[in-house]
Write a structure and sequence with these properties.
By secondary structure, the chain is mainly alpha-helical. Helices cover 79% and strands 3% of the residues. Helix 3 crosses helix 4, helix 11 (204-221) packs across helix 12 (225-250) and helix 11 packs parallel to helix 13 (254-272). InterPro entries: ABC_BtuC-like, ABC_TroCD.
Length: 298
């Protein structure tokens, strides 16, 4: 039964991150998930100081709040003329450093298990369950990530056209009356919720990897956004299933194996994609040169 819960959790994380990750890849903001996963450290510490409890709920609420502040600051700096990648780097390193300072000042004598909060292990998911009325209703991670998936899927489905236009042509979106800033912050909010809801249980590497690798792979396979989202979810789920069994055989990290499989699928797409594949393009170029040579000889 533990195998089922681990694979289900990995698939839910992959699906949730893949949906919002497609829009991040299109907007050239793929690494914002990595920024959020590090920048939330001061939120975790502040939540602990205010509540006096190491309960993960308080810490996740603090992390979610700082996650939203992170995306706001990144956008603010970008609008002020700072390049997008530089904005991400400045904000997440600065906030992460603030978190380290707070830890050194206020929690040095307290067992605040940040490794668990920031870099959780998916193998432990089946043991951290929720009980309602004395009945075990399943792992907390499945419920948390499942709710995040439903939220992201519902919002993207309701405002799909708006998100699509804002991602491809913000100027056109503004011209037709779409509030571009509102949908930008709505998307960033979904990214923050997805990241924070996932990384405590499954680890930052799995969350960041699923935000980037499956969408990037799907981008190589199609030029239609709706298909890209579907392909991204399927690739993420396949990576979770295959990665789990690879980890079982090798006795290795489950999250690391899942992302390694996703990386292999990306490499295959990069080489053999019908439109962007390196080998396919080389073959097309060789055929074209051969045709030109035959025409010249004739």
């Amino acid at each position: 039964m533990s195998t089922f819960w681990i694979i289900l959790t990995g698939a839910l994380v992959a699906s949730t991150c893949s949906i919002v990750g497609c829009f991040l890849v299109l907007r050239k903001m793929a690494m914002i998930g990595d920024a959020i996963s590090h920048a939330v450290l001061p939120g975790i510490v502040i939540a602990f100081l205010l509540s006096g409890s190491r309960d993960s709920l308080f810490m996740l609420l603090g992390a979610a709040g700082i996650g939203l502040i992170t995306v706001f600051l990144i956008q603010l700096f970008h609008q002020s003329g700072v390049q997008s990648d530089a904005s991400i780097g400045v904000v997440f390193t600065a906030l992460f450093a603030v978190g380290v300072v707070l830890i050194s000042m206020y929690t040095r004598h307290i067992d605040l298990d940040l490794d668990c909060v920031l870099y959780g292990e998916i193998a432990y998911v089946p043991w951290n369950t929720i009980h309602v009325g004395g009945v075990d209703i399943g792992p907390k991670a499945v419920w948390g990530v499942g709710l995040a998936f439903l939220l992201c899927a519902t919002v993207i489905a309701l405002f799909y056209k708006q998100f699509k236009i804002c991602s491809f042509d913000p100027a056109m979106a503004a011209a037709v009356g779409i509030p571009v800033a509102l949908f930008h912050y709505l998307l960033m909010g979904l990214v923050s919720v997805s990241t924070v809801a996932s990384f405590e249980s499954v680890g930052a590497i799995l969350v960041v990897g699923m935000l980037v690798v499956p969408p990037a792979t799907a981008y190589l396979l199609t030029e239609k956004l709706s298909r890209m989202i579907v392909y991204s979810v399927l690739i993420g789920c396949a990576s979770s299933v295959i990665g789990y069994y690879v980890a079982s055989v090798l006795d290795a990290s489950i999250a690391g194996s899942m992302i390694s499989v996703a990386g292999i699928l990306f490499l295959i797409a990069l080489l053999f994609s019908p439109t962007h594949g390196v080998i396919v393009r080389k073959l097309k170029q060789r055929k074209m040169i051969q045709k030109q040579a035959d025409a010249a000889a004739a």
